[in-house]
Amino acid sequence: MLEEISEYLEKLRSTILSGDSDSAREIAKILKEKNVNPVDVVNNAIKPAMDEMGKKYENLEVFLPELVLAGEAAQEVLEVLLPKEMESSFIKGKVVIGTIYGDIHDIGKNIVAAILRANGYKVIDLGYDVPPRNFVETAKKEGAKIIGMSCLLTPSMFYMRDVITRLIDEGIRDKFYVIIGGAAVYPDWAREIGADGWAKDAERAVQLCDTLLEKGHELPKPVILGEWR
Ligand code: B1M
């Protein structure tokens, strides 16, 4: 059984890598029928495929069209595995999430949003390329306790600081926990911009929100969950 699932995961990894959305969707359906945990699919098929794609792109072995196709195949898998009805019936807290300004990478952010939802959070997803002021205005309007920003593109990470500066300027920094993640950002960046936490992946993002809501006021910041790289 386990061997069979590993085979499907490996097949899915290579299917995403080749950008074959139809086959990726079919394999995802099989994995769903077999009740495989979506987090295992992310960690053992989607993430490895995307990391490999990233390396190939850096080494000029593939180009933008292949990157686009692989991204689309990954999104197909997520649509099958992380449907909206995973939203939980009890609410631990509200999180405003988005990919920061200038950056359109949203696969990881979508995973984090879905896993948060499945774990009892009401998630307001602002999408990608989100200007700093939208994070702040939405968090205020919705009464969210947590602002989560994702970033994969190095030039965009500087806008994360603007969100925190806005909160400070408006005198409301202590009303929100600001957490960050995504392949371009790292624990020292969280320290440098004065974020409250950094998480390596979606599971840890849930732990991070739980920890901050439970005892955020008594912990030294930022709270770092997971090893960088
Ligand atoms: Co782009 N891209 N891309 N890309 N792309 C990267 C990020 C890159 C590293 C590739 C490379 O060169 N090796 C590079 C960025 C270099 C840098 O600045 N550091 C890059 C580039 C350069 C670009 C373009 C500039 C290319 C171009 O146009 N010439 C362009 C940027 C456009 C823009 O944003 N303005 C571009 C475009 C694209 C596509 C549109 C084709 C596509 C994105 C499709 C989409 O997202 N809808 C794409 C893809 C697919 C990638 C790679 C290959 C894969 C990204 C991904 O989805 N990973 C990527 C290489 C790589 O990451 N290795 C690359 C899988 C995903 C599950 O992981 O997002 O890290 P990740 O999320 C994880 C954790 O990080 C964490 O949890 C998630 C689940 O475990 N996490 C959080 C994420 N957010 C979190 C938030 C949290 C907590 C945890 O709290 C709030």
Label this structure with key terms:
alpha/beta; Methyltransferase, Methionine Synthase (B12-binding Domains), Chain A, domain 1; Rossmann fold; 2 domains; 6-stranded parallel β-sheet
Q: Could you give a short account of the major beta sheet?
A: 6 strands, parallel
CATH superfamily of the largest domain: Cobalamin-binding domain
- SSE order in H/E notation? HHHHEHEHEHEHEHE
Q: Would you tell me which CATH topology of the largest domain applies?
A: Rossmann fold
Number of domains: 2
Number of helices: 9
Which architecture of the largest domain does the CATH hierarchy give at level 2? 3-Layer(aba) Sandwich
List ligands, each type once: CO-5-methoxybenzimidazolylcobamide
**How much of the sequence is in beta strands?**
5-15%
What sort of overall outline do the alpha carbons produce when their principal axes are compared? globular
Summarize the structure.
The chain is of the alpha/beta class and 229 residues long. Helices cover 54% and strands 12% of the residues. The two termini are 31 Å apart.
How would you sum up this structure, described in words?
- With 229 residues, the protein is α/β, with parallel strands linked by helices.
- It folds into 2 domains: 2-85, Methionine synthase domain (Methyltransferase, Methionine Synthase (B12-binding Domains), Chain A, domain 1); 94-225, Cobalamin-binding domain (Rossmann fold).
- Helix content is 54%, strand content 12%.
- The chain is built from 9 helices and 6 strands, in the order H-H-H-H-E-H-E-H-E-H-E-H-E-H-E.
- It has helices spanning 2-17, 21-33, 38-58, 64-81, 107-118, 132-142, 158-169, 187-193, 202-215, and strands spanning 93-99, 121-125, 146-150, 177-181, 197-199, 223-225.
- Strands 2-1-3-4-5-6 form a 6-stranded parallel sheet, sandwiched between helices.
- Strand 4 (177-181), helix 8 (187-193) and strand 5 form a beta-alpha-beta unit.
- The mean pLDDT is 95.
- The chain binds CO-5-methoxybenzimidazolylcobamide (B1M).
